[in-house]
Amino acid sequence: MEICIHRGTHEIGGTCVEIAHDGFRIAVDLGLPLDAEDNLPELLPSVAGITHPADDFLGVIISHPHQDHFGLLAHVHENLPIAMGQAARRILETASRFVPGPKAHLGNLELKDRQTLTLGPFSITPFTVDHSAYDAYALLIEAGGRRVFYSGDFRAHGRKAALFERLIAAPPTPIDCLMLEGTCLARLGEDEHFITESNLEQQFVDAFKRISGLAMVFASGQNVDRLVTIYRAALKSGRYLILDLYTSEILAATENEKLPQGHWDNVRVIIPHSQSKQATATENLFENHRCINWKKLHELAPNAVMLCRATMLKQIADSGNLAGAEVIYSMWDGYLKDGKTQAQLDALNIPLTKIHTSGHADIPTLKRLVEALQPKNVTPIHSEHPELFENLFPNVVNRTDGEWWSI
Ligand SMILES: [Zn+2]
């Protein structure tokens, strides 16, 4: 098997790996780089067969529905086979109705937990993982008697931590090469653990009990684990959860009845200005979402948690619901560094508290995966600090973007 990481040996985001065997090739992930200002075709890695059909190129496997793993699918040719989880595909279809920019091609090949997909000489077995994206997979890729394990993005401190324990209890060994994500390296110490999603729940409960007015939570509408945490904390503190239409539609797209939904008793759905067009186009709007009117928000505000984004702040202020309101920031705080959100909050006199945990594995978790898989080689990917891997794991081989190697 020949492998090339086109992008991702020394950065987080923009991931793309090409794998070749016996005259055929596949790619794993086709992500938008995090520092890209626009989603442009010039950002595509040089993989023959993605913009024009090529007989030897069999398709792209998308590990999970995060921009930095699928974002460049907008520029592939329309007959390219693309594999991803079915829920991931529905989430991306739904999100594309709300998000401007080029529409991604989503293909129709299905990844399913532990069900092997065959593309030419390649056998691809997905393992559902615990991650901040819903329907996320690590991938075992086999061809010509060689076995690669691509960790994708994963963690073991979320609501699906049991999936990680299941994987390492019966690891798919032997592994010739482990491509291991290292997002957290240099962000926390070797023995430090990220706080668990269930511990976060208690922090939210405490905050919701303390806040006298509307509790506004900034969180990604696609971080389903976090939405569950916020929903449960709202319930425990006697508050309604108010979702924006986008988030309510994403939750519906999971088709998972165990997850909070916009038609549930203690959930309400509000339509911000920015989503009014999509609301008109939404089928069964009032059946699937318990919509509330902005004019009635004041009746719920002191007893509600509202999922919020910066674009909604003005409308919330104009609707006169800021008395005693506070913001809880539940996203990576790197997004705050440009100061824009903080400036908006300062202007409105709204205090901000951070309650967040990472979507990625801490170092003790990475070590447990390496110990379980016993790979012949560990190759860093999705990390800004590939040079730190060799202090932490045995048999590390660093690669550079665009370099081909054989196993
Ligand atoms: Zn991710």
Order of the strands making up the biggest sheet: 6-5-4-3-2-1-19
Low-confidence stretches: none
Range of helix content: 25-40%
User: How many structural domains?
Assistant: 2
Listed once per kind, the bound small molecules are: zinc ion
Estimated radius of gyration: 22 Å
Shape descriptor reads: globular
Kindly estimate the percentage of residues that lie in beta strands according to DSSP: 15-25%
**Ends: how far apart?**
6 Å
Mean pLDDT: 96
* CATH homologous superfamily placement of the largest domain: Ribonuclease Z/Hydroxyacylglutathione hydrolase-like
Strands, count: 19
* CATH class label of the largest domain: Alpha Beta
CATH architecture of the largest domain: 4-Layer Sandwich
Biggest beta-sheet profile: 7 strands, mixed
Overall SS class: alpha/beta
Tally of helical runs: 13
User: Under CATH, the topology of the largest domain is which?
Assistant: Metallo-beta-lactamase, Chain A
Structural notes for this entry:
This protein has helices spanning 67-70, 86-98, 161-169, 197-210, 224-236, 245-253, 276-281, 285-288, 297-300, 313-318, 340-348, 363-373, 389-392; strands spanning 2-7, 16-21, 24-28, 57-61, 82-85, 109-111, 117-119, 122-129, 136-143, 146-150, 177-181, 215-218, 240-244, 267-270, 304-308, 326-329, 352-354, 377-381, 404-406. With 407 residues, the chain is an alpha/beta fold. Helix 2 (86-98) packs antiparallel against helix 6 (245-253) and helix 4 (197-210) packs across helix 5 (224-236). 26% of the residues lie in helices and 22% in strands. Bound molecules: zinc ion. Zinc ion (ZN) is lined by residues 64, 66, 131, 133, 153.
